[in-house]
């Protein structure tokens, strides 16, 4: 009996020490790691320092002043399965009380909207009405980190200046639901993360359609202009939606995307979620195309902001590989502008106060084009 107890004690102690080695890297972690390093082939990324010339970028690009409308139809078809934008408006809109936002300055009231989609998916968001309005609209879109409550600072900044704010979250995030669905030949799936959406037909529509629906609603309210701000996955949503819907005048994607050729140079850092790398889309309309499509047109700008020291993704100076090229290409169109800002003020994955000021400066400037 004592032998069994002693043996069990030794096994438990060994297991505990093994956990300590792995978690806290105590002795002999470094020795074990050195043996592992010697036994594994060290793989370097040959694309990390590859330089794309202007000619290389030209070959990646599809959009031109002559084909932009037809390419926009290609993009819409890949997203919605049709060349036409959805014509839907929110299914319900009603006033709500929310203590988290109750003390916002210049807040008149909050409406909640609900948009129903296929497979029982719902997009639930808020409309923040200002007491003193400038009759301008900002659509705010949160990323993968959670609901639009995380964007309270951005919402307050522009609400205070008189903007009406439509706030949304990505599918399955924030107030949005997580239905159980039936997929042919696969069975039942509980939708909990974006990776599972790829099993649905035209899955990218569930990211973009709610924004288009709110643009449809906004056009009935006769705002002077429509701007869109998104962070992270919301920045991706902003980039794609502005490219396919020219009714969005000014788009501000923050920490949202890099072109695919930049991502491949640091895939562990920048490759992204399935919607950001969906091959069926980006082989037809890539990010360079979408930057240009979102920036061109009468009274249209795109202002991309990336955090140089971002703790998540899209950091560094890799923007230098494409920003000047995109800006030059936009100038070939009759109107529009592509702007860029590298935010060096922090080391987080967020919209900083400096970024908000940069966005405000652009929105405060007359745009005669």
SS summary, helix count: 13
Give the overall average pLDDT: 90
Q: What's the SSE pattern? A: HHHHEEEEHEEEHEHEHHHHEHEH
Task: Return the CATH class of the largest domain.
Answer: Alpha Beta
CATH topology of the largest domain: Rossmann fold
Protein name: Alpha/beta hydrolase family protein
InterPro entries: AB_hydrolase_fold
Topology readout:
Blueprint: H1 2-24, H2 29-39, H3 54-60, H4 68-80, E1 92-96, E2 107-116, E3 122-130, E4 137-141, H5 152-160, E5 164-168, E6 180-183, E7 187-190, H6 205-219, E8 226-231, H7 233-244, E9 250-254, H8 260-263, H9 267-270, H10 279-282, H11 287-295, E10 301-307, H12 323-330, E11 337-343, H13 353-363
Parallel strand pairs: 4-5, 4-8, 8-9, 9-10, 10-11
Antiparallel strand pairs: 1-2, 2-3, 3-5, 6-7
Helix pairs in contact: 7-11, 11-12
Protein name: Alpha/beta hydrolase family protein
What does this protein look like?
By secondary structure, the chain is of the alpha/beta class. The protein has two domains: 2-39, no CATH class; 54-363, Rossmann fold (3-Layer(aba) Sandwich), CATH 3.40.50.1820. Helices cover 35% and strands 18% of the residues. It has a nine-stranded mixed sheet with strand order 1-2-3-5-4-8-9-10-11, with helices on both faces. It has a two-stranded antiparallel ribbon with strand order 6-7. Strand 4 (137-141), helix 5 and strand 5 form a beta-alpha-beta unit. It is globular and about 55 Å long. 37% of the residues are buried.
């Amino acid at each position: 009996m004592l032998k069994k107890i002693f043996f069990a004690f030794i096994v438990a102690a060994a297991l505990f020490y093994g956990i300590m080695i792995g978690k806290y890297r105590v002795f002999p972690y470094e020795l074990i790691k050195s043996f592992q390093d010697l036994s594994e082939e060290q793989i370097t990324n040959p694309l990390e320092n590859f330089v794309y010339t202007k000619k290389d970028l030209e070959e990646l690009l599809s959009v031109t002043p002559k084909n932009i409308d037809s390419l926009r139809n290609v993009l819409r078809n890949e997203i919605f399965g049709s060349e036409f934008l959805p014509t839907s408006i929110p299914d319900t809109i009603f006033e709500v009380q929310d203590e988290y936002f109750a003390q916002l300055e210049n807040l008149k009231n909050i409406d909640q909207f609900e948009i129903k989609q296929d497979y029982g998916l719902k997009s639930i968001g808020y409309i923040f009405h200002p007491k003193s309005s400038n009759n301008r609209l900002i659509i705010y879109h949160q990323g993968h980190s959670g609901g639009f409550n995380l964007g309270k600072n951005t919402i307050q900044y522009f609400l205070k200046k008189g903007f009406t704010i439509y706030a949304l979250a990505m599918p399955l995030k924030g107030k949005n639901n997580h239905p159980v669905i039936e997929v042919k030949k696969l069975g039942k799936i509980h939708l909990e993360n974006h990776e599972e959406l790829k099993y649905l037909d035209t899955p990218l529509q569930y990211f973009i359609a709610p924004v288009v629906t709110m643009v449809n609603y906004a056009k009935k309210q006769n705002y002077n202009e429509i701007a869109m701000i998104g962070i992270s996955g919301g920045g991706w949503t902003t980039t794609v939606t502005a490219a396919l819907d020219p009714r969005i005048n000014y788009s501000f994607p923050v920490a949202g995307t890099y072109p695919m050729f930049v991502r491949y140079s640091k895939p562990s850092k920048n490759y992204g979620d399935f919607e950001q790398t969906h091959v069926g889309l980006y082989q037809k309309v890539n990010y360079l195309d979408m930057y240009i499509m979102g920036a061109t047109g009468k009274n249209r700008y795109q202002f991309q902001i990336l955090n140089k020291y971002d703790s998540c993704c899209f950091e560094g100076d890799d923007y230098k590989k494409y920003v000047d090229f995109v800006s030059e290409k936009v100038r070939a169109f009759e109107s529009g502008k592509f702007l860029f800002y590298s935010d060096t003020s922090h080391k987080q994955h967020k919209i900083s106060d400096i970024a908000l000021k940069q966005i405000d400066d652009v929105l405060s400037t007359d745009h005669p084009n």
